[in-house]
What does this fold into?
Amino acid sequence: MTKIIGLTGGIGSGKTTVANHFRKANVPVYIADDEARKITQSPEILGEIKNTFGDSIFDNSILNREKLSQIVFNNPDKLALLNAIIHPAVRKHFQDWVTMHQEAPFVIYEAAILFESGNYKNCDFIITVTAPVEVRIQRVTQRDKTTREQVVSRINAQWNDEQRISKSDFVLENTDARTTKNEIDKILKILKNS
It folds into this structure.
């Protein structure tokens, strides 16, 4: 049976970089945030979002993600409502995706909020990607063209590294490209033999 390897880490830790290394090693990779974004565009999910949050977050029938994130980001109750719409749909989509990759010994499920969503319970192993907070802030401000304050707010909204590490099988510090690649190769060897 195909094993599910959870891949997580705080914003700016370099999860995508690590996921891409696994892809290059021919491991199927599911990026939960990307898939959630696509699923959110389905008429059924858009309808549920509209019923829950109203018309004000739509511009000419197109979901304004920025408006929606402003509503849910600092309001745990509203975020829970949004998650109750999106998470079950992503979970179902992922299960179908795993079925399509059942010939693979293992797949990577990359999710920023793997623990917060409870999806870690469905994983056979968990890899947490870390990097110093200042490095993460610098990466995200450059990547997203955002402010330091916004990045710090997003970091504070997620689990911290200590919380993630305590529930992980592997910890990968992603500060140096060569070291990161070597660590991934070691993890791959262990996973292939497990």
